[in-house]
Design goal:
Elements: E1 4-5, E2 11-12, E3 21-23, E4 26-28, E5 35-38, E6 50-51, H1 52-61, H2 74-81, E7 95-104, E8 107-116, E9 119-126, E10 130-131, E11 137-140
Antiparallel strand pairs: 1-2, 3-4, 5-11, 6-10, 7-8, 8-9
Length: about 140
């Protein structure tokens, strides 16, 4: 994607924020932290989906859980406070923050981000539900954790 010139003639990033840039397919923050959208292998199948508890077990057994993100991460807080920095590639998906799990009685929920009308919203999904091919988990690259 091309950079745009601002009124002052300086270049801005693709998100209008000078501290964001792209490296291949991963978003790179000034800290060097790279993000990945992770799909369970069953989600990649034609029309595939996976149950939330199975997805949770998979993340833990494959040591990916430690790379998952939460509502407490500075990058996530930044997206909520400054929606124009939210990556374009995330805007047509529900982006799950697996470290933000919440229990309510016998029910467990996981937080996710959705883009709507120029803003980023936090929603919660029941783990008993299913995850389809548009529902990735946000991970930091394992080399960055």
């Amino acid at each position: 994607m091309a950079r745009k010139k601002s009124a002052s003639g300086s270049e801005s990033s693709i998100f209008g924020h000078p501290s964001l840039r792209w490296s291949r397919t991963k978003l790179v923050r000034p800290s060097g932290l790279k993000f990945e959208l992770y799909f369970h292998p069953k989600q990649k199948e034609q029309g595939g989906w996976v149950g939330g508890f199975e997805f949770d077990k998979h993340l833990r057994e494959t040591s990916r859980f430690e790379c998952t993100r939460s509502l407490e991460d500075e990058e996530v807080k930044g997206w909520l406070e400054n929606p124009e920095t939210y990556p374009e590639e995330y805007r047509n998906k529900a982006i799950f923050l697996w470290k933000s799990l919440r229990d309510s009685g016998d029910v467990r929920y996981v937080a996710y981000l959705v883009w709507f009308s120029g803003r980023v919203f936090v929603r919660w999904r029941w783990l008993e539900g299913g995850w389809c091919g548009y529902d990735p988990v946000l991970l930091a690259s394992s080399s960055d954790v």
